[in-house]
């Protein structure tokens, strides 16, 4: 039992790894902030193309969504770093490629959330708004978007949780995030405590996000029933 605690819960090993673990944690925070900001924006752009009155654009977007959903994120990150971005003439680092890959991959799911929320708004709401003179942007801003936010809030927080869960996959293109730094610390400390610390940090973060998702879902349900 003492050997287990010494190997997995050695605070001295964790202290010796504090610098490299801190760099990895900052890398994870940077990646989380960038992808959580850009993935919903990418989803909006994809959904906006779906709304264009051009059949070719809608069909191309549907094919793109199906393709992105079929490709595993790990594979798409490698493709982004070594193929897609270089073919586009862009020379990027691992951080930029990770942001591009994760944000675009999850962007297609955000686009589907927006589409589902828009289609869930009762058609009678549109008719009633037009009867009182609301058109175009006013109709969207005052009637449609507020109802969409209530409908899709649980799905948005759930998707954000899934995005955070996928961040460690950025190691495949050499990005230095907290689990990568923990593995490096495990080598030079000859102890698994840094890795255990990184795993626990991720677990606590994801459990917190799941709690937030549950709260948002209950609040959304109450607002829809009101």
Automatic annotation (TrEMBL):
CDD domains: TM_PBP2 (cd06261). It is a multi-pass membrane protein. The chain crosses the membrane at residues 31-49, 70-88, 94-118, 139-157, 195-214. Keywords: Amino-acid transport, Cell membrane, Membrane, Transmembrane, Transmembrane helix, Transport. Residues 25-217 form the ABC transmembrane type-1 domain. It is found in: Cell inner membrane; Cell membrane. GO terms for biological process: amino acid transport. GO terms for cellular component: ATP-binding cassette (ABC) transporter complex. The keyword Transmembrane applies. It comes from the Bacteria. The keyword Mitochondrion does not apply. InterPro entries: AA_ABC_transptr_permease_3TM, ArtM/GltK/GlnP/TcyL/YhdX-like, MetI-like, MetI-like_sf. Belongs to the binding-protein-dependent transport system permease family. HisMQ subfamily. This is ABC transmembrane type-1 domain-containing protein. It comes from Acuticoccus sediminis.
């Amino acid at each position: 039992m003492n050997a287990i605690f010494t190997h997995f819960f050695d605070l001295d090993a964790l202290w010796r790894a504090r610098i490299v673990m801190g760099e990895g944690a900052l890398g994870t925070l940077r990646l989380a902030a960038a992808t959580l900001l850009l993935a919903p924006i990418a989803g909006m752009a994809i959904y906006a193309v779906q709304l264009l009155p051009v059949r070719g654009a809608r069909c191309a977007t549907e094919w793109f969504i199906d393709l992105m959903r079929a490709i595993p994120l790990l594979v798409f990150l490698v493709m982004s770093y070594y193929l897609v971005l270089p073919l586009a003439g862009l020379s990027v680092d691992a951080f930029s490629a990770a942001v591009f890959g994760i944000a675009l991959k999850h962007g297609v799911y955000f686009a589907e959330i927006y589409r589902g929320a828009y289609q869930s708004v009762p058609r009678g709401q549109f008719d009633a708004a037009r009867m009182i003179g609301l058109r175009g942007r006013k109709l969207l801003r005052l009637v449609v978007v507020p109802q969409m936010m209530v409908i899709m809030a649980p799905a948005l927080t759930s998707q954000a949780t899934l995005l955070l869960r996928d961040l460690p996959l950025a190691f495949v293109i050499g990005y230095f995030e907290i689990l990568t730094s923990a593995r490096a610390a495990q080598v030079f400390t000859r102890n698994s405590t840094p890795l255990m610390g990184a795993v626990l940090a991720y677990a606590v973060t994801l459990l917190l996000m799941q709690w937030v998702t549950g709260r948002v879902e209950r609040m959304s349900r109450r607002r829809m029933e009101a």
